[in-house]
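Session log. Operator J.P. requested a structure for one protein chain; no other inputs attached. Running the standard single-chain path with token output.
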Amino acid sequence: MKLSQDTIQEIQNRIEIEEVVSDFVSLKRKGQNLWACCPFHQEKSPSFSVSPAKGIFKCFGCGKAGDAITFVMEIEALNYVEALKFLAGKYSIEIEEEEQTDEQQAAHNEKESLHIVLGFAARYFQDILRKHPEGKSIGYSYFKQRGFSDQVIEKFGLGYSLEEWDGLMKAAKAEGFSEELLEKAGLVIRKDDKQNGDRFYDRFRGRVIFPIHTVSGKPIAFGARILKQEKTKSGKAGARLPGPKYLNSPETAVYHKSDVLYGISQAKQAIRQHENCYLVEGYTDVISLHLCGVENVVASSGTSLTDGQIQLIGRYAKQITVLFDGDPAGLKASLRGIDMILASGLHVKVVVFPEGEDPDSYSQKLGSTAFQEYLQKEAQDFLKFKTALYAKEAANDPIRKAETVKEVVASIAKIPDPIERAVYLKECSSLLQISEELLVKELNQLHRKKLAKEAGVKQLSPPPEEETPSRPVLEKATTVDESLQLQERESIRLLLNYGFSQIEENFQLHDYLLQEIEELEFQTPIYKAILQQFKDRLAQGQVVDAQFFIREGAPELREEVAGLIVEKYDLSNVWTERHNIHIPREEDVLDKAVFQNVVRLKFRTIQKLIGQNLQKLKEASEEEDMLEFMQVHQSLKNAEMELAKLLGIVVSK
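Structure written below.
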């Protein structure tokens, strides 16, 4: 669904960020802003700031930032349109949609219908569990035997399907739902019958039901565990068909299992708060951990872990702790999932249970407190886990040990951050007693193979031995002098906060600032990107301010811009009101502030150029080159001295 521009504009005009945020956290006023403990990470002292005047939020702890729409997107894990609809509902704004094609409208209508019928089915299964004699005697009894409390049964919407061929179908048809819609939702199965026409029957029969929800809590599919096996066609007493233990909904227009995690709706807030997500395999594992007080847990629902599921977790936390059954064969089979998590840029730890135990059984055996202590104590990073996994079989076998080294380095190679890779290589060198230089060579070899594969060639030629780098290749981080970076940041802060303020008649701050820094090239990528977008939009005659970047910028730009326009500390009014001491505010002295910033920025830039030129002078071997660099040095030093005078500081000649 695409909302009309009028609807979007009305939502943006009506929303008040303090009203939106206060629905989720308790805000307290301090100065001009409102403060709270951040809902996106654990903290004891409030660092989460809301600026009603600027319409934005900023956490000085974790860095999250944005406007009211961004906040709803983050806190509820919604996309942009879903967040707008959420806010439209809060402010009772009627939603107008832009005209859609017949195909788009049909697809939208079908999804809406599927959500409605799946919601009906979820309520039906819950009612059967609580009210029907068969549901109470079989389904409810099973859950109670497993130790599930009424609270957790309600929390996860657990239910029961009757041991009938058409129990759900009859109830749904009585409510006006068609057999075709029930089939599209995966609730009934069509059986071809040439003589009597197609027949439909319930997919789930005689099973306890585990609804699978979206992040926002809508049921989109079901998992069902069998409690009694079906009779054979002959109907002989005691004869049973094996039947699958678990039966899941098929993929539909609203359910794509590779993008869904069981329990994410119930876990999202806890994952944020703990900055960690426990990953298990099954429905009952998730529920058992909730019973033990561990709520930041989700399951891949019996499917192999997918990139979509990892990205979903990554919305809430950068740490995943995988809980493994104590089965050696199963552990090795799960290593692929660990590599996928590493490749996504997330951090991964592992907890292994004793052999024969799983999260469900072991949590029941230990009890809540001891189980939580076990998770904390036994969590180990992937490197120690993988090394220990192969340690015994490789102990007296040099060839197997070499293979283990390669396997461990292959996992490290998945990590996108070069600094993290370097740290893990150093740790790997210590654990495996292999020189770090050899590990780096192996890592670079893997990178070359990857590049060759992507380029469609057999193998890239390795560099000569003497040119082999002593650290991982590919990424070269651009180092920016910290003092220069601070001045670039200050330039962008002034531009976004006061760019269109008058500093002289018919002369705005952006006119002066952009003119003065025209010949300077920013070194910090994020400030360089903001500056370029500001210039481009200005050239098109548009007024560019912080709100533009917060509404339309990439996530990293939004967070940085919000940090630039939200002050961590406010100047108290007490100085003026109680002590009659007037302290000028920045907007009162903009001309001086921007002049000082420009001079400091040029000063830091000159100092950087001096350092670069001295390095060239040091490396020069020709007398002519040395003379040229010495002349450049003197010219730069003269410029540095002039700027230092303006700043009132002394520098060496």
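Operator note: Residues 292 and 369 are 7 Å apart (CA to CA).
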